[in-house]
C-alpha cells in the first residue's frame, strides 16, 4: 500500500523493492510517491538514451556508471528544465532516482551477477574554492580541487545489519540501515509478547563497504591567497572504486556532497554532553574523484612512447609540436638560441641586478625533471632515435637538479628563490628556521575516527615541482638528515606507528644559505664557510654558487642606479618586475655591463609559468652522440685532474652534467641535446663550486681548473713531518685546536723541521698550512667551546687538526 492507503501497482512495487535494495548500500532515504513518478520518468529517459552519448561507461561487475555532468544536464533539459538546480540542491535523492531507474532499465535484481547501479558524475562544474564552503553548502553537490595532505587507512564500514532480541532471540523483520555510517540499534523487540529494549546485531549478516578518509588542501594558495592560512577539508571516500586511488601530494578534483559532523564526535567523544554541543565540522562525501597527478603522468609516458614509435612519425609529430609551441610562445622563442636564454634569465628575477650564472642555474633546475631508468636512455644519431626497449622493473634515477646559493647577506638570494617558487607551477617556499623535519618530509598522525594516517610534508606536496628553502644553514642536523634520501632517491621512506610507506618526492630543491660569521671568506673552503652544512648534503647539489659582494666602482654605479630606479617605479605605481640591464650569458663578457632599457624583452611571470608547464609536459630530450661524447670527455678530464689534487670527482658529477644538459635543451623546447647545449652546461658548471672542500682564493667562483700547490719530494717530507708534529701535540695536550702561534711554538721543539721550512726560498709556513687545509688535515673554523682546547687558544677561530685527513 502507498502512503495514502491505496494499493500499489506492480511497477510501483518493483520500484520500491529496488529503492530499498539501494538503502542497504549507504544512505537510507524514504521512497515517496513523487520519487516513484520521477523514477518512472528517468527509466523512460534511460530507455531512449544512448549512454555513450553522455560520455558514460557502465561497469557490469561493480554497477558503477560514469556520466559527464555537462552532457547529462544538457540531455535533461527536455525532461526537467530545473534539473541542474535539483541535482545541486538534492544530490543524494536525485542520484538515487537515477540509479534506481538505471537498474530498472537493465532489469537488475540482487540475485543477478553484478552490483547495484551507482551514478558517478565526472567533470562537474563549476569548481568551488574551499574558502567558499559554508553552512549554506551543506547537503549540496560541489566540486573542489586541491592537494592531498593526509591519507588514512582503508577500513570496512558497516552499512546495515540484522538485529535480534537478546531476551527472546527473535530476529527483527527489517534490516537496520546506518545512515552515513552512524550506528543506531533498534529500540525494542517487535514481538507482541516480548518488549525487550536490548537488541544485539547479528555480525554475520552485516554488510560492509570500504571507506577511507583523506584531507584536501586548497590548491595553488601560494599564488592566490598569500596572507591566508590554506583551507583544508576532509574527504570521505566510500566504495572500492574510490578508495586507495591517491597518495599524499597528489592533486585531486573531487565531486561530492557537503555534510556536517559534530566536532566532539569527530574527536572521538560520544558522551551525552558531546552530542549536545552545536559546533559542527564540514566534510565532503565523494561521489567521484579525478587524480590529475596520475593522469598527467600516464599521458606523458604514453605520449613519449607514441612519439618515438617510428622515425617518420617521430619527426612529423615533433615538428608539428614545436611549430605549435613556437607560435604560442613567440614572445619567448623569437630570435636565436642565445636570445631565448638571455630573455629567460633576464625575466627570472628582474628586481635583482646581475648574478647571471646563478639565475641561469636556477632556470635549468626548474626545467629539469622526468624520472630516468638506468639503461633506458637513448642516444640519438642524425636525429633518429635508436630502438631500445626498457624494462619497467629497473630502478629509476633522479632527474631533478638541485641548486644551492651561498654568499653574503643582502645579495638577493631570497628574492631569487621566491621568484622560482612563483614561476614554478607546483612549488612551496619554506624557511629553514621555521620548518621541522616532519614538516619537510612526512609524518604519521593518529585520528580518533580513522586511526593512523600519513600526512605529507613540503617535499611530498611539491612532488614534480620545486621546494625553495631559505635560511638553509639554520636547519638542525635532523632536518638535514631528512633531506638526504629525498634529494637523491627522490622518495621518502617512513616507518612509524606500525605504518611503513614510501612516498614520491620527485622535487627540485633550491636552497639559500649565509656563511658562518655573516661574510664569505675566500681563504676558507665552502665547508669551512658554512660549517653547519654536512658534506653528504652538499654533494647532492648539482650546482653551488658562491655570491660575494665585491666592491667595484663600475658595477656599484649600475647597481645603485638600478635600486633607485626600482624605488622610483614603485613610488609611481609601476610594476615591480623591472628589467635588468642587458647582460650576456657569454662567460667572457660577464663583467661587461651593456646599457639600455630592455623592458620590452622582459617576459611576465604568468607567461613564464605557462612556458615552463609546456616544457615539462614534453618528453625528456635525448642526448645526441656528439653531445654525449663532449660530456664524457669533460668528465674524464675532471677525473684525471682530480687524481692530482685529491678532489672528489665521482659519477655523481657526470649525472649532474647530463641532467643539466637535458634541462638546457628543454629550455628551448628541443627534443634532442645538441653539442651547443652541452657546451653551455659545461661552461656554467665551471663557474660553480665543484669541490666544497676547496677554497676559492682570489677567484669569485669555482674554476674548472683544479691546479693548486703541488708538492715535491722534499715538500712531501715536510708535510708528513708537520702532520706527525700536530698528531703528537694533539695526543699530549688532548686538544686538536691550534692557532698559528701554537704551530710556530711547536716548531721550536722540532729544529730539523723548522730549518727545512726556513730553507725554502719560495714557500713559507703559511703555504704548508694551506697544503694541509687542501688535503683536509686542517680546518679553519670557529672553536668548539664544548671540547677541551689548548690553553694558548684564545681566539674565536683556530685550526682544527683532523688526523685522518677526511
UniProtKB/TrEMBL annotation:
<dbReference type="InterPro" id="IPR031327">
    <property type="entry name" value="MCM"/>
</dbReference>
<keyword id="KW-0238">DNA-binding</keyword>
<dbReference type="InterPro" id="IPR012340">
    <property type="entry name" value="NA-bd_OB-fold"/>
</dbReference>
<dbReference type="Pfam" id="PF17855">
    <property type="entry name" value="MCM_lid"/>
</dbReference>
<dbReference type="GO" id="GO:0003697">
    <property type="term" value="F:single-stranded DNA binding"/>
</dbReference>
<comment type="similarity">
    <text>Belongs to the MCM family.</text>
</comment>
<dbReference type="InterPro" id="IPR041562">
    <property type="entry name" value="MCM_lid"/>
</dbReference>
<dbReference type="InterPro" id="IPR003593">
    <property type="entry name" value="AAA+_ATPase"/>
</dbReference>
<dbReference type="InterPro" id="IPR027417">
    <property type="entry name" value="P-loop_NTPase"/>
</dbReference>
<dbReference type="InterPro" id="IPR001208">
    <property type="entry name" value="MCM_dom"/>
</dbReference>
<dbReference type="InterPro" id="IPR033762">
    <property type="entry name" value="MCM_OB"/>
</dbReference>
<dbReference type="Pfam" id="PF17207">
    <property type="entry name" value="MCM_OB"/>
</dbReference>
<dbReference type="GO" id="GO:0005524">
    <property type="term" value="F:ATP binding"/>
</dbReference>
<dbReference type="Pfam" id="PF00493">
    <property type="entry name" value="MCM"/>
</dbReference>
<keyword id="KW-0547">Nucleotide-binding</keyword>
<protein>
    <recommendedName>
        <fullName>MCM C-terminal AAA(+) ATPase domain-containing protein</fullName>
    </recommendedName>
</protein>
<dbReference type="GO" id="GO:0042555">
    <property type="term" value="C:MCM complex"/>
</dbReference>
<dbReference type="GO" id="GO:0005634">
    <property type="term" value="C:nucleus"/>
</dbReference>
<feature type="domain" description="MCM C-terminal AAA(+) ATPase">
    <location>
        <begin position="340"/>
        <end position="563"/>
    </location>
</feature>
<keyword id="KW-0067">ATP-binding</keyword>
<dbReference type="GO" id="GO:0017116">
    <property type="term" value="F:single-stranded DNA helicase activity"/>
</dbReference>
Amino acid at each position: 500500500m502507498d502512503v495514502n492507503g491505496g494499493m500499489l501497482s506492480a511497477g510501483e512495487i518493483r520500484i520500491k523493492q529496488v529503492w530499498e535494495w539501494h538503502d542497504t548500500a549507504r544512505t537510507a532515504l524514504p521512497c515517496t510517491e513523487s520519487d516513484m513518478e520521477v523514477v518512472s520518468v528517468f527509466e523512460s529517459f534511460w530507455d531512449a538514451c544512448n549512454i555513450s552519448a553522455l560520455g558514460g561507461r557502465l561497469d557490469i561487475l561493480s554497477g558503477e556508471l560514469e556520466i559527464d555532468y555537462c552532457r547529462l544536464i544538457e540531455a535533461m533539459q527536455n525532461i526537467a528544465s530545473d534539473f541542474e538546480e535539483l541535482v545541486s540542491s538534492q544530490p543524494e535523492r536525485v542520484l538515487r532516482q537515477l540509479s534506481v531507474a538505471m537498474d530498472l532499465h537493465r532489469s537488475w535484481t540482487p540475485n543477478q551477477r553484478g552490483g547495484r547501479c551507482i551514478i558517478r558524475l565526472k567533470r562537474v562544474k563549476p569548481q568551488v574554492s574551499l574558502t567558499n564552503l559554508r553552512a549554506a553548502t551543506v547537503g549540496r553537490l560541489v566540486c573542489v580541487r586541491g592537494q592531498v595532505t593526509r591519507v588514512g587507512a582503508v577500513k570496512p564500514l558497516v552499512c546495515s545489519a540484522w538485529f535480534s532480541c537478546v531476551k527472546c532471540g527473535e530476529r527483527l523483520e527489517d534490516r537496520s540501515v546506518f545512515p552515513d555510517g552512524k550506528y543506531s540499534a533498534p529500540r525494542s523487540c517487535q514481538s507482541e509478547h516480548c518488549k525487550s529494549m536490548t537488541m544485539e546485531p547479528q555480525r554475520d549478516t552485516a554488510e560492509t563497504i570500504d571507506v577511507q578518509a583523506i584531507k584536501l588542501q586548497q590548491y595553488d594558495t601560494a599564488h592566490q591567497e598569500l596572507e591566508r592560512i590554506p583551507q583544508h577539508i576532509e574527504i570521505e571516500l566510500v566504495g572500492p572504486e574510490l578508495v586507495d586511488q591517491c597518495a599524499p601530494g597528489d592533486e585531486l578534483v573531487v565531486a561530492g556532497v557537503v555534510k556536517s559532523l559534530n566536532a566532539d564526535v569527530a574527536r572521538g567523544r560520544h558522551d551525552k554532553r558531546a552530542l549536545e554541543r552545536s559546533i559542527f565540522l564540514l566534510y565532503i562525501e565523494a561521489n567521484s574523484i579525478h587524480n590529475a597527478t596520475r593522469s598527467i603522468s600516464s599521458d606523458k609516458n604514453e605520449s613519449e612512447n607514441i612519439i618515438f614509435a617510428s622515425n617518420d612519425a617521430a619527426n612529423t609529430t615533433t615538428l608539428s609540436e614545436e611549430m605549435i609551441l613556437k607560435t604560442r610562445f613567440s614572445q619567448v622563442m623569437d630570435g636565436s638560441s642565445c636570445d631565448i636564454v638571455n630573455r629567460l634569465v633576464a625575466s627570472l628575477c628582474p628586481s635583482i641586478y646581475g648574478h647571471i650564472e646563478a639565475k641561469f642555474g636556477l632556470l635549468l633546475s626548474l626545467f629539469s625533471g622526468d624520472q630516468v631508468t638506468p639503461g633506458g636512455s637513448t642516444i640519438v644519431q642524425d636525429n633518429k632515435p635508436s630502438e631500445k626497449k626498457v624494462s619497467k622493473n629497473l630502478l629509476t634515477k633522479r632527474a631533478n637538479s638541485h641548486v644551492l646559493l651561498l654568499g653574503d647577506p643582502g645579495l638577493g638570494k631570497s628574492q631569487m628563490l621566491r621568484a622560482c617558487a612563483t614561476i614554478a607551477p607546483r612549488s612551496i617556499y619554506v624557511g629553514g628556521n621555521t620548518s621541522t623535519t616532519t614538516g619537510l618530509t612526512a609524518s604519521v598522525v593518529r585520528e580518533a575516527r580513522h586511526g593512523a594516517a600519513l600526512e605529507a610534508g613540503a617535499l611530498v606536496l611539491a612532488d614534480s615541482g620545486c621546494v625553495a628553502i631559505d635560511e638553509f644553514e639554520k636547519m638542525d642536523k635532523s632536518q638535514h638528515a631528512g633531506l638526504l634520501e629525498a634529494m637523491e632517491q627522490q622518495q621518502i621512506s617512513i616507518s612509524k606507528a606500525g605504518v611503513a610507506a614510501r612516498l614520491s618526492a620527485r622535487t627540485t630543491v633550491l636552497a639559500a644559505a649565509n656563511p658562518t660569521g655573516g661574510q664569505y671568506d675566500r681563504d676558507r673552503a665552502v665547508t669551512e664557510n658554512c660549517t653547519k652544512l654536512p658534506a653528504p648534503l652538499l654533494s647532492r647539489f648539482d650546482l653551488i654558487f658562491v655570491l660575494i659582494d665585491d666592491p667595484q666602482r663600475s658595477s656599484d654605479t649600475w647597481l645603485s642606479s638600478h635600486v633607485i630606479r626600482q624605488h622610483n617605479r614603485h613610488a609611481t605605481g609601476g610594476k615591480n618586475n623591472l628589467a635588468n640591464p642587458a647582460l650576456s650569458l657569454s662567460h667572457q663578457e660577464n663583467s661587461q655591463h651593456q646599457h639600455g632599457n630592455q623592458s620590452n624583452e622582459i617576459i611576465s611571470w604568468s607567461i613564464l609559468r605557462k612556458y615552463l608547464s609546456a616544457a615539462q609536459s614534453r618528453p625528456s630530450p635525448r642526448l645526441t652522440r656528439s653531445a654525449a661524447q663532449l660530456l664524457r670527455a669533460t668528465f674524464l678530464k675532471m677525473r684525471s685532474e682530480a687524481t692530482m689534487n685529491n678532489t672528489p670527482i665521482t659519477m655523481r658529477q657526470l649525472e649532474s652534467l647530463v641532467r643539466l644538459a637535458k634541462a638546457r635543451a628543454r629550455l628551448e623546447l628541443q627534443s634532442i641535446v645538441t653539442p651547443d647545449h652541452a657546451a653551455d652546461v659545461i661552461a656554467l658548471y665551471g663557474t660553480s663550486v665543484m669541490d666544497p672542500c676547496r677554497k676559492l682564493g682570489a677567484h669569485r667562483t669555482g674554476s674548472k681548473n683544479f691546479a693548486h700547490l703541488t708538492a715535491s719530494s722534499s715538500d712531501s717530507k715536510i708535510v708528513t713531518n708537520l702532520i706527525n708534529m700536530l698528531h703528537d701535540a694533539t695526543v699530549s695536550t688532548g686538544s686538536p685546536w691550534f692557532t698559528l702561534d701554537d704551530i710556530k711554538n711547536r716548531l721550536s721543539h722540532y729544529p730539523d723541521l723548522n730549518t727545512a721550512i726556513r730553507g725554502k726560498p719560495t714557500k713559507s709556513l703559511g703555504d704548508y698550512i694551506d697544503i694541509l687545509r687542501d688535503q683536509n688535515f686542517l680546518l679553519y673554523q670557529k672553536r668548539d667551546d664544548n671540547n677541551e682546547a689548548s690553553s694558548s687558544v684564545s681566539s674565536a677561530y683556530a685550526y682544527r687538526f683532523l688526523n685522518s685527513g677526511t
